[in-house]
TrEMBL record, chain B:
Organism annotation: Streptomyces triticirhizae
Gene3D superfamilies hit by this protein: P-loop containing nucleotide triphosphate hydrolases (3.40.50.300)
SUPFAM superfamilies found in the cross-reference section: P-loop containing nucleoside triphosphate hydrolases
Alphabetized GO MF terms: ATP binding; ATP hydrolysis activity; phosphate transmembrane transporter activity
Full protein name: Phosphate ABC transporter ATP-binding protein
Keywords: ATP-binding, Nucleotide-binding, Translocase, Transport
Transmembrane segments: none
Ranges for domain ABC transporter: 5-248
A cellular component annotation (GO) from this entry: membrane
Length: 327, 259
């Protein structure tokens, strides 16, 4: 022991025995080891699966990327083959988002700040339940119920708002349009988007809500002053997670849309492009040889776009965490 | 500006739980009234009924009368939002809006009142409010920076500036210094003495010296016994409460011989 340590320990206090250090290394327990290694394993497994999928897509898409343009379906090469599909995918997903995001914000606000507690809980369950409905059911609903319902309104849109490119027409007689596909997608992404936003709204610090109310804010003013600014990045994050889902959604679009491969913003006629996922689902069973590689190449594009959107969404949501209300 | 508050036979409930019973008091304008008492006796609860913040708690209610210059704050036609525009509040923990700049924090309440205001008027109001809160010199060069970047004491003074920018009649403060260091506390106590020229101030505090230093009148709250509702035991000139209170419990409490 050095003299300085002895100074701090008067003689009448027992000194720790030198062989027992003050801060021992903790005993490693069996449960700790099992937990940490299984958590680690699961994390690694996910990375391996993701890498495997990416590798599969790359390998299988490779021949299509370098194929003679004439051999690709459509005869204009892989880029012109994928482009309308990518366009259709983005159009359907973005329009769905445009419908779903404001609705999700409104529902989240209603649940967290307006509805009486019981109604709020019930409504929360219903929204979560929407997430549990298989997408094929949504597709069938869109095809048999929603599509016929839209025939009349789209005619009206064509006649009265036809100058807007979105509603140029001619309105489809069957209703199997991009508009219906987007509405179905919007319903499908509503739960995830609402859930993320609702969570953020619930976490608005009471402190800030009270600050606003004590200044004499009405409920809506309080929401604008305290809740929305606090939840802003979660709204963006939730919307982008929804967008990621809409991009990859297959069955609902495959069932609803009757595509014809054009590149157009027209939502209500029969000339819409399909989406990548729906196109793969519909064409894959009848394809062989290079056609399969081409489909997989389109899948690779979808994979990249979805990955990008999801990563951006995660980044936005995490940034909010750093921000943490600045108490 | 500076109104008198009269409370008559006020009972305050959280759902079925009677938290505070039978409070009657008069709070004089242009003075500081301090509320002291042990933890859990209902000081915050009482304070929050004065600007109807209390009813934000689900199923919470108050029975009795609270009059401001004769107007019943709990009258059937009265909008609680309007009440809060007249009776401002400063909280225990500083709570500036984190997403707003210092400037926007100060005018947050004014913007709510939907007053159309010229830029120059707004600037003047910000300067005046920050000066009243003794914060102007410290922040005048960074008004556009976020309010959450200030120190705790500065944040609390920012909250006071925000509260007085709307020119309330009454200012309620619930332990405004309990999260602050002695220097910031000093600054806010000085501020209270200045503000009482214009406002009616009610402050809840656990700091006996603080009550003695800043207040003109002191009210002592206590629980009658465990499990009983809290209530106002005694209210008098601060000098009297701290030198010769008429109630034994008050005397024990202010002299530190409590419990
Ligand atoms: N939101 C609430 N719901 C139910 N009961 C509450 C609520 N807030 C306070 N109470 C109860 O009301 C009583 C008074 O609480 P209050 O917070 O007013 O005490 P206080 O005097 O401010 O105490 P402190 O000095 O610790 O701040 C306590 O018994 C408390 O448990
Ligand atoms: Mg309190």
């Amino acid at each position: 022991m050095s003299s300085s340590t002895e100074l701090t320990h008067p003689d009448n206090q027992p000194q720790p025995p030198p062989e027992a250090p003050l801060f021992e290394k903790p005993v490693s327990r069996f449960g700790d080891r099992v937990f940490s290694s299984s958590a680690m394993g699961a994390g690694v497994l996910i990375l391996v699966i993701l890498a495997g999928v990416a590798a599969f897509l790359l390998v299988e898409a490779w021949p299509a990327l370098w194929a003679d343009p004439d051999e690709v379906p459509g005869g204009d090469g892989i880029v012109l083959y994928v482009w309308p599909l990518l366009f259709g995918t983005l159009l359907a997903a973005l329009f769905a988002l445009l419908l779903a995001a404001p609705l999700a914000v409104a529902i989240a606000l209603f649940i967290t700040h307006y509805a009486p507690r019981r109604l709020a809980t019930a409504l929360g369950y219903v929204i979560d339940l929407l997430a549990a409905v298989p997408s094929i059911i949504f597709g069938l609903w869109g095809l048999s119920e929603l599509a016929p319902l839209t025939v009349e309104p789209t005619r009206w849109l064509e006649e009265n708002l036809g100058f807007i490119p979105l509603f140029e027409g001619p309105a489809s007689a069957t209703g199997r349009t991009m508009l219906v596909a987007s509405i179905v997608l919007a319903v499908m992404i509503l739960p995830i988007t609402t859930a993320v936003i609702r969570e953020a709204f619930l976490q608005t610090p009471r402190l800030h809500e009270e600050a606003s109310l004590a200044l004499g804010a009405t409920r809506w003013e309080m929401i604008r002053q305290a809740v929305l600014p606090f939840g802003r990045s979660s709204i963006i994050g939730g919307a982008m997670l929804g967008l990621g889902r809409a991009l990859g959604e297959t069955m609902a679009v495959a069932i609803v849309l009757s595509p014809s491969g054009g590149v157009t913003f027209n939502l209500i006629n029969n000339g819409n492009p399909s989406t990548i996922a729906a196109n793969i689902a519909l064409d894959f069973p009848e394809s062989s040889g290079l056609d399969i590689n081409v489909l997989i190449a389109s899948g690779l594009v979808l994979f990249a776009v979805t990955l990008l959107v999801n990563m951006t969404a995660r980044a936005v949501i995490n940034r909010r965490r750093d921000f943490s209300g600045a108490n | 500006m500076a109104k008198r508050i009269e409370v008559k036979d006020l009972d305050i409930y959280y759902d079925k739980f009677l938290a505070v019973q039978g409070v009657s008091m008069t709070i004089e304008p242009r003075s500081v009234t301090a509320l002291i008492g042990p933890s859990g006796c209902g000081k915050s609860t009482f304070l929050r009924t004065l600007n109807r913040m209390h009813e934000l708690v689900p199923k919470a209610r108050a029975v009795g009368k609270v009059l401001m210059d004769g107007h019943d704050l709990y009258g059937p036609q009265v909008d609680p939002v309007a009440v809060r525009r007249h009776i401002g509040m400063v909280f225990q923990r500083p709570n500036p809006f984190p997403t707003m700049s210092i400037y926007d924090n100060v005018v947050a309440g004014v913007r709510l009142n939907n007053k159309r205001m010229k830029r120059s008027e707004m600037d003047a109001l910000v300067e005046r409010s920050l000066r009243s809160a003794n914060l102007w010199e410290e922040v005048k060069d960074r008004l556009k920076r976020p309010g959450s970047g200030l120190s705790g004491g500065q944040q609390q003074r920012l909250c006071i500036a925000r509260a007085i920018a709307v020119q309330p009649d009454v200012l309620l403060m619930d332990e405004p210094c309990s999260a602050l260091d002695p220097i910031s506390t000093q600054a806010i106590e000085d501020l209270m003495l200045e503000l009482k020229q214009q406002y009616t101030i009610v402050i809840v505090t656990h700091n006996m010296q603080q009550a003695a230093r800043v207040s003109d009148v002191t009210g002592f709250f206590n629980l009658r016994s465990i499990g009983e509702p809290g209530g106002l035991v005694e209210m008098d000139e601060t000098t009297k409460i701290f030198s010769s209170p008429s109630n034994k419990a008050t005397e024990d409490y202010v002299s530190g011989r409590f419990g």
